[in-house]
Design goal:
Elements lengths: L1 H21 L1 H22 L5 H18 L4 H7 L3 H22 L3 H13 L25 H24 L5 H17 L6 H5 L5 H28 L4 H25 L4 H17 L6 H24 L2
Length: 317
């Protein structure tokens, strides 16, 4: 137990360091938006008879993906044989707020499932453990779209199958496909959170405008391809073809903003991630607000200008 407390204390110190690096001004803007976005999602989904079960499963899938990508797993395995108990406690504490909200809606079974799945994630192996590069399967995506290639190898393909299966199971209600689209957006977001090394960008040998158009074309194109079955389920349901088309276009617009944000703050990974979270949070909270169109226009214009400005500085064009 003392070792677990020491580990949790270390994690809290690391969290405090990250908060200081983000900056209080950025955090003051980011935190309320993300809290409002998550709150709105929970208020909509938790009272739903099927949606309440989607929350612990979705949280478990997200936590599993984040756990398997942790860079310190192999270090912990070598230096601390009992590290999985520490991780189990950490993940259980992280799941407590979601479980508490589910209890407020009297979703006791979903709350228990949340608290059961979170600690179990600690026993999953790191991504690509024990696999040599020559034995990796050929990717369905072009090597140039390296974000999608790596995302698929990190388990994105299985997550897509799971989300599609859940959407098919709940296709009679628009909530099922919409939640699947939201989950897939988070998976796509995780693919674009890590900036590629500068040599990879230099090898593209394009102007900033050409480089950005190519990245947007590949990213949005593959996003449209993978989201098409989920949008089709929306179209054949109560939403209809028109509503499904609108949801699909908004979803693809968010993917484009995520890509623009990556290059607007390249190569600072922390600023990329926090700004991407802010963009997605605003998109989830603000629809229907009279200021939303103006805010969206400013965000799109600002990200396009900043990404081209940053690429000119990086590529020297």
């Amino acid at each position: 137990m003392p070792a677990t407390c020491a580990y949790l204390n270390l994690r809290l110190r690391l969290l405090g360091r990250l908060v200081r690096e983000i900056g209080w001004l950025r955090l003051a803007i980011l935190a309320p938006v993300l809290v409002a976005a998550l709150g709105r999602l929970l208020v909509v989904v938790a009272p739903h008879p099927q949606g309440q079960w989607a929350l612990p499963v979705g949280f478990g899938l997200w936590l599993a993906a984040a756990h398997r990508q942790r860079s310190d797993l192999r270090f912990l395995a070598i230096s601390a044989p009992g590290h999985r108990r520490w991780l189990a406690v950490e993940y259980a504490l992280g799941a407590l707020p979601l479980a508490g909200i589910l209890v407020l809606f009297n979703d006791w079974g979903a709350a228990a499932l949340t608290l059961g799945l979170a600690p179990a994630v600690a026993w999953l192996p790191p991504a690509r453990e024990g696999r040599s590069p020559q034995y990796r399967g050929r990717s369905a995506f072009r090597s140039e779209a390296f974000e999608w290639v790596s995302g698929l190898r990190r388990g994105g393909g299985w997550l897509w199958v799971a989300l599609l299966a859940g959407a098919v199971w709940q296709h009679e209600s628009p909530l099922g496909p919409i939640l699947a689209l939201a989950g897939w957006l988070l998976v796509v977001l995780s693919c674009y959170r890590i900036p590629e090394p500068l040599p990879m960008m230099a090898l593209a040998a394009r102007t900033p405008q050409q480089f950005l158009r190519r990245r947007l074309g590949l990213g949005v194109g593959y996003a449209a391809l993978t989201a098409a079955p989920l949008c089709w389920l929306l179209a054949v349901g109560p939403v209809g073809a028109g509503g499904a088309l609108g949801v699909g276009l908004v979803w693809l617009g968010l993917v484009a903003l995520i890509i623009l944000t990556k290059y607007a703050f390249y190569p600072n990974a922390l600023h990329i991630r926090t700004t991407q979270g802010l963009v997605v949070g605003v998109a989830l909270v603000m629809p229907g607000h009279p200021m939303y169109p103006a805010l969206l226009l400013v965000a799109v214009g600002g990200l396009i200008w900043q990404s081209q400005r940053r690429l000119r500085a990086v590529l020297g064009a």
